[in-house]
Amino acid sequence: MTSLWSRRFAALALTALCLLASNGFAQQYPDKPIRLILPFPAGGTVDLVARLVTAKMAEDLGRSFIIDNRSGAGGVIAADATAKATPDGYTILLTTPNHTIGAALNPKLPYDTEKDFTAVSIVAAVPELLVSHPGAPFTDFRGFVDYARKNPGKLNYSSAGIGTLPHVTMEMLLRGMNIQVAHIPYRGAAPAMTDLLSGVVQLKMDTYATGNPQVVAGKLRALAYAARARSPLMPDVPTVAEMGLPGYEGILWIGMVAPAGTPKPVVDRLAGAVARAVGAPDLRARFATDGIDPVGNTPQEFSALIARELVQWRDLVKASNIKPE
């Protein structure tokens, strides 16, 4: 009995020491620059958000951020580097739904999406916008659905590639509406948009930042917004949800994750810095011009979203028979 109590006491003492060490580390954190790995090249929306937000976070935390762009392999390169990094809060990943979609498409990733990362916070969210070529045989969302039902397979849509967010969210919309539209995958968003503008394809899931200028110029039509509520930037454009698919969302979230095992006080400190950064009036105003919604939620909320999406995309990939390239 004495031996049992001794072991229990030793375990409790070790746990207490670990907690004290963790809290002490968190109080000193950060004491050097923080590396933020991005799975995208410089110049895109995610890179812009990363630089704007980390500039604010650096003021808050008193340490600079080093942006490390590691594009390629659908985000696997960047995620793998993060998963294998020391879990001390000095290497974090800024990722998107590619993080959860990739797990659904590829069961042989070099890391475990559920076990090898710790959620920190969603920084921002970019709702998708369904746009069409003005020469398409419909002028609004209802017309699109009606035409597609009467002419299954005659319409087509472009995306930046198989397994990208615009691809899977469009497939989710098509299944929800019970219509058939052919998918034409491209190697990147730019050629997918080029062929939409030229009329080679009729539809595309895009974003306000890149789609609205073409809508204003009369080169595209805005059919529906893929958010819970209408956008104040396009108040006359209905949401997919209100057009007959309740609960539907197509959101490009941009979130921070850290290697599994990163001390909770450090994760919470980072999450708090994110929330304060995206709550700054000047940053919110800057985001608003591009249709970007600031978020700054908790690690628990972000973790719950990841868990939901892993199930959602696995079910969709199986039901739609989506195969990786």
The outline comes out as globular
**CATH superfamily heading of the largest domain:** Bordetella uptake gene, domain 1
Q: Please state the structural category.
A: alpha/beta
Count of DSSP strands: 10
| CATH topology value of the largest domain | D-Maltodextrin-Binding Protein, domain 2
Largest sheet: 10 strands, mixed
Number of helices: 11
CATH architecture assignment name of the largest domain: 3-Layer(aba) Sandwich
Series of secondary-structure elements, N-terminal to C-terminal = HEHEHEHEHEHEHEHEEHHEH
How much is the average pLDDT? 92
What integer value in Å does the Rg equal? 22 Å
- The percent range for strand residues is 15-25%
Write a structural description.
This protein has 325 residues and is an alpha/beta fold. The chain has 2 domains: 34-125 and 252-320, D-Maltodextrin-Binding Protein, domain 2, CATH 3.40.190.150; 127-243, Periplasmic binding protein-like II (D-Maltodextrin-Binding Protein, domain 2). 45% of the residues lie in helices and 18% in strands. It has 11 helices and 10 strands. It has helices at 2-28, 45-61, 76-83, 98-105, 141-150, 165-177, 189-197, 208-216, 264-278, 281-288, 299-320, and strands at residues 34-38, 65-69, 91-95, 117-132, 156-159, 182-185, 203-207, 221-225, 251-259, 293-294. Strands 1, 2, 3, 4, 5, 6, 7, 8, 9 and 10 form a 10-stranded mixed sheet that branches. Helix 2 packs across helix 9 (264-278) and helix 4 crosses helix 11. The longest helix has 27 residues, at 2-28. It is globular, with a radius of gyration of 22 Å. The N and C termini lie far apart (61 Å). Residues 7-17 have low confidence and may be disordered.
